Amino acid sequence: MTDTTPTRPIKVFRRAIVAVIIVSFGLAALLGIVVLLGGDLGSEQYRALGTTATIGAFSVAVLCCAALAGRRLQLVGFVGAGVALVSAILSVWLIWYRYDSYPDSLYDTLMRLTWTGIALTVAFSFASLLLLLADRRQAAVRIGLAVTIVLFTVVLGMTIYAIWWSSTITGDAFGRTLGVCAILAALGAVIVPVLSLMLRDAPSTTGLSPVSIALLDAEAARRGIPVNALVDALLRESAPMDPVDPR
Length: 247
What we know:
single chain; 74% helix; 0% strand; globular
């Protein structure tokens, strides 16, 4: 039995993330409506619309990463959410960036950093959703998940290399390899979740029935503690007291 019951701080964190995303989407949507109804579309209006789209896109990315909160691999989600936040700030900055205020070299560096952040955000978002299946016991799912994560890592590495050192790439071998790996990674991102739905988990080694597991999960959720902590507490409560030494 895998303990996936979120603790109370994790629940509060998830609710805070959802609240921030809802507020961000609401403000972004309001800004977009005001811009579209405000008259002719100029450069400033297009920047405002770009900001709206950017906030919405990165909010979805943060939500994907936050899905891992309270799970064994939650660190991946936290790092991904941080990367998404920084990337969103860089993207909005570039949208409103005045190109004639800074040297071209600085603009070029900011562009490379922003695209690197976008690539990392996309990778962390997909990885966070896929890693929700990390506790599944089916061999096909575990192997497929590992292969898919490796492919995503290869695609991410090649993408970052192309962003920063594109001048060193010659011929079409690099592009062909990147394309093949990207297609296989996307295929794995579809097949692995489908396999997890089609294949049933191996019988639990705990010997507990599904009804018992469901009852334990419900009670742990009611108390706001992990299932393992609930079982430990119940065992301590039912353990017999040590006999008193008559001497």
